[in-house]
Amino acid sequence: MRVLYAENLEYHLGGRDLLDKVSLELRLGKRVALVGANGAGKTTLLRLLSGELEPSAGRIHRAQDAYLALLPQDPQYGPEVTIAAVLKSGFERLERLERELAALEQGLADPEIYHRWEELHARFEALGGYTRRSRYEAVLKGLNFAGREREEARVLSGGEARRLALGAVLLSGADALLLDEPTNHLDLEMRAWLAEYLRSYGGALVLVSHDRHFLDALAREVAMLKEGKLRLYEGNYSAFWQKRRLEREEEERRYQTWLDEEKRLKAILEQAKAWAHSSEKHAIRKLAVEKRYEKFLETRPAPPERDTKALGMRFPALPSPERVLEALCLEKNLAGRRLFRLESLVVRRGERIALIGPNGAGKTTLLKVLLGLLPSDDPAGRVRTGIGIKVGYYDQQLSGFDPNLTLYETLYRMLGEEAHAALGAWRFPFDAQYKKVAHLSGGERARLALLSLSLQEANLLVLDEPTNHLDLETVEALEEALGRYEGTLILVSHDLFFLDRLASRTWHLQGGVFTNHPDTPSALLARLRQPTMEPPAYRREPEPPRAKPLEPSRDNPRKIKGRWHKERERERLEASIGELEARLQALHLRANTPGLGPQEYAEIAEEQTRLESDLEAQYARWEAVSLELEEG
C-alpha cells in the first residue's frame, strides 16, 4: 500500500535552492536511509513529508487518513504530563482505527465496505494494533523508562526527553516513521534494541542517522541528497558506499578521458589553423575541425566530485615508549554509587582501545581520572605515563577554545601565516574563517577540535565521542586518518561501526564493574548480550513487485531504430576521424625527419593527399549525420 508520493518537490531558503525537483515514494514496509552532508536538507525534506513545512513547488500525495510521525528535535512537555501519558498518546489513532473497523463489520456483505475494511485491517495489523500493550512494555524497558511511568516528562534531561519522544513515535501507530537521528542519546545496547524493534515494524521507515551499523541493519534503500537532488540506491549503507566508490572512480576515468581527447583535438585544431592559409582544402578542413571541436566541448562531463576523504586529516605522532600508561587502585563514586574500581591497568604502545558501556556508567569520568584531570577516590590510586608521552584529548564539550576569537585568530596562534591554508584543508571556506568560535555549529567546532589535535603530534590520543556532530563523510575521513595514526588510541563512541573499524581491545564499564577484553566491541557485545524481551511481531506487508523499466514507445519503431543507427554511425565516424588525424600527424613528423630522399618525400606527399581526401569525406559525412540527428 502506498502511504505517500512526493512529486518534484522544491524548497527555497534564503536564496538557496535547498531541494530541486525531489521525488520519493513511501509504501508500507519500505525502509529508506536518507543520507547527505550536514546542511544538505535532510531534516527539511522530512518536515515536508510530515506536513510540517509546505514546499515552494511540487506536490505531496498522501493516502487517505495516512499519518506520518516525525521525531522532534527538541521535544517539549506540558505540566503534569507523565511519561506514561506521552508514550500512550499514540494509541488514540489505533483506537480510532479499531472503532472504524468495528463499525464496518456490520456491512461486510457490501463489496465496497468489505474492501475498505480489508484495507483498514491490513493497516491496523501492520502498525501493531493487536500488540499495543506488549509494545508499550517493550519500549519502557528498551528505552530505560521502566518503573518511571508516573514521573513528569517536563523534568527529564535533554537526552531523556528526546528518548521519550522516540518512544512516543514508536508507539504512535503511524503509517510511516520519519526518524531524524533516532540514535542520539542512546547507548550501544539501546541502539541494538531499537534496530531489533524497528525490524518488525510494518509501516514505512525513513532514517537519518550517522550510525552506519544502525543503517546497515535496517535500510533496504539509500536516498542520497546532494546539491538539492535526490538519488536512490538499492541495498543498505555499506552497499551504497561501495556503489558510490565505484561511481566516483568511473567519473574520474570518464573525466580524464575527456580531458585527454580535448587536448588531442585542440592540438589538431591548432595545426589546422596554421595550415588553413596554404590552400582552400586546408581552409575547409579547418572549418570542419572547428565545428567538431565545438561539438565536442558541448559533451564536457561534470568534474568528478571532490572526495571528502581528501579532507586534510592527519595525526602525526612522536615516538613512544613501550609502556604508554599505567594505573593502580583507581576508584570513583557518585552519590554513594560506585562508578568503577580499577585495580591495575597497563596500556602499551600502538594499542587501539574502545571504552564502551551504558549512558551514565562513568566512561568520561574514567577517562578524566586516567588523564589526571580528576582525582581517584582511593588515596592509593596512581596513574603514570611513560617518558615522552604526549596526550591529545578530545572531550565531549569541545572545550579549550576562546569563544571570542575567530577561527583564523585561533589557528594563527598555533600556526602563524599557515592558518588560512590549514583551515582550507579542513573544509573551512575563507569567509567562515572569520566567524567567532562562539558562533560555530557543532560540526564546525568538532572539526576545529580535531584540527587542533592534528597539530599536537600526540602519541596518545584519547577521543571522547569524536563522531558527534560530524556528517557521515567526515566520520569516514576521520576513520581513515585514525587508521593511519601510528600512536596509541583510546576511543569512546556509540558508533559501533566506527569502533569496530579501529579498536582491537575493549574496556567495558557497567554497573560499577570495569573489565578488559581482547575483542572488538561487536564481538564482546555478542558474548555479553543476554536474551531480552522479544519485540512484538508485526505483520509485515510484503514488498510490491518491482515495476519493469519503461520500454521505448512503439508508436514509431522505425524512427527510434533509425536514430539509434545514426548515433552509432556518428560514433564510428568520430573514431575513424581520430585515427586518420593521428596518421596524418605521424606522417608530418616523418616528413620533418632529416636526411629524407626525393623518393621518400614523394611517397609521403602521395600518402598525405590520400589521407586528407579520406578525412575530408569523413568530416562531410559526420557533419551530415550530426545535422540529421539535430533535426530529428
Automatic annotation (TrEMBL):
**Region (Disordered) residue spans:** 533-567
Q: Please list the residue ranges that the record marks as compositionally biased, kind Basic and acidic residues.
A: 537-558
Which molecular function term from Gene Ontology is one that the record holds? ATP binding
Q: Which residues form the ABC transporter domain?
A: 4-252, 325-536
| Keywords assigned by UniProt, alphabetized | ATP-binding, Nucleotide-binding
**SMART domains per record:** AAA
**Pfam families this protein is in?**
ABC_tran (PF00005), ABC_tran_CTD (PF16326), ABC_tran_Xtn (PF12848)
| Entry protein name | ABC transporter related protein
What organism does this protein naturally occur in?
Allomeiothermus silvanus (strain ATCC 700542 / DSM 9946 / NBRC 106475 / NCIMB 13440 / VI-R2) (Thermus silvanus)
Q: What is the lineage of its organism?
A: Bacteria, Thermotogati, Deinococcota, Deinococci, Thermales
